[in-house]
Design brief:
Helices cover 81% and strands 0% of the residues.
């Protein structure tokens, strides 16, 4: 019964009713526009946040790579400095005639007067020769 009553009621076309209807439509439009603006705002905020986070992550990984490379280069630098010190010491030694003579006798088997040179095999060479002999002596099946 109440459904019939609601349907049978006619709306009054007064100024107040028209203004009230227009204000409802205006409020509905404002809400719809507000929801659209908020949606666009949150989408833009999400995009900007994603860009900032991805940039932060890429910069962090780049920084980690640079730190690793810096560590490697510093180790290389320290080894090169040690090598430089050794080479400077070698230069000082090479300016000494006695050292050059000793080096020449050692490397090129040169001798002083009344000096006889005996060459002794290295231990490594002896071990290699023994291993080769053992391999030859053992029959392979």
């Amino acid at each position: 019964m109440s459904e019939n009553k609601d349907q049978n009621i006619a709306k009054l076309q007064t100024d107040f009713a028209l203004q009230h209807e227009e204000s409802k439509i205006s409020v509905a439009r404002r809400k719809k526009f507000l929801y659209r603006r908020l949606t666009v705002f949150f989408i833009l905020a999400a995009i900007i946040t994603y860009i900032m986070v991805s940039t932060l992550i890429s910069q962090h990984s780049t920084l980690a790579e640079k730190k690793a490379e810096r560590e490697r280069v510093q180790q290389e630098l320290s080894s090169l400095k040690k090598e430089e010190v050794l080479l400077k010491e070698e230069i000082v030694k090479l300016n000494d005639d006695d050292y050059i003579a000793k080096l020449a006798r050692k490397e090129y088997f040169l001798s002083d007067e009344d000096e006889i040179i005996f060459t002794l095999p290295n231990e490594k060479e002896e071990d290699e020769e023994k291993e080769e002999k053992e391999k030859k002596e053992k029959p392979t099946n």
